[in-house]
Amino acid sequence: MDFNSLVDRRNTNSYKWDKYSEDVLPLWVADMDFEVAQPIKIALQKIVDHGVIGYSRTPDELVEIVMQRLKTRHNWDIKKEWIVWLPGLVPGLHTATQCVSDDFYSVMTSTPVYRPFLEAADMGKRRLQDIPFVWQNQRWEMDFEEMERTANPSTKLYMLCNPHNPNGRVFSKEELEKLSDFCVKNDLFICSDEIHCDLILDETKEHISIASLNKEIEKRSITLLAPSKTFNIAGLGCSLAIIPDEELRDRFEKKKYGMMPMLSAFAMESALAAYKDSEDWRLEMLKYLKGNHEYLLNEINKIPGLKMEPLEATYLAWVNYESTGIEDFVSVLERFGVGVQDASIFGGKWYFRLNFATQRANLEEAIKRIKKALNVI
Ligand SMILES: Cc1ncc(COP(=O)(O)O)c(C=O)c1O
Q: Which of 91, 241, 270, 349 sits at 20 to 30 Å (Cα–Cα) from 298?
């Protein structure tokens, strides 16, 4: 497990690396530049060696391990039949925005947020109620006052991203309880995307699934999970929704029926190998990410015009560039050889998102180029 060792991903049809020309370091879309854990490679090799790749069913052991993880790590007892397998988490976001009612309705979320949250509402012809996060108590918080003011009888769903992409928050029990009360009071369902829950950087923080808080919110919940971000198997498409309420689950299943492929053996066996046998890799990888996070915090905050707050989770730095006064700063960075994403993609302004799940040498090079773009010696 040498996370410093460079892996050449160019010319592999990598979505991340083959987006730009060779002189741009791609630090955008959320996948990691690290080789996967050995147990995952072995599981995939076993399928290739067998040589017949037909339709697959979900391994019982995978179901067991998901249930066990939720119980031991999230203190949430779920039943087998609550799980709906999905070939990706984004299809789960879209299905969730479609399934809670047959009537026209509004979907509320806090912004900036992972772009498919915004698209799912828009493409699904739901009215989006986007409420900006507020910076208070030295962290990004949901604006409950504005949420209360905005919620109306057409509001049927709140979309939560926890841990949050892109602001890196791990929402506290108090915040989640407040959100749970808000949903119950306004008769909302909740869709909680928890794909980053095994990527906690701040050891004083703990991931809590909002559905585990109480039975009232549990029955209104669609919780979306996947091993893909944590174990770097996003290309294989294995995700799941946990939907305790039978009627809601039925509506969700009906909306997705015939629109999504079955999961492949590669998807499910890699997920099993990840959850069951790759914990050592995860812990080492997290240690490496924490080092990268420290490095970036130090370096970015030394650059005049840029500001980065510590993240609680994820490997996506959220950097403020307002003091540079350069509105098209992300294009400037691209010209200087750094490929990052602008906040406008996520419904925000004056920030860029930088993926630091890469070798330290790449980050060092990126920092040099960012300094050059800003004329910092
Ligand atoms: C919050 C969040 N949800 C979902 C996804 C993507 O999920 P999938 O590739 O399984 O559709 C990402 C990827 O970056 C993400 O950050």
A: 349
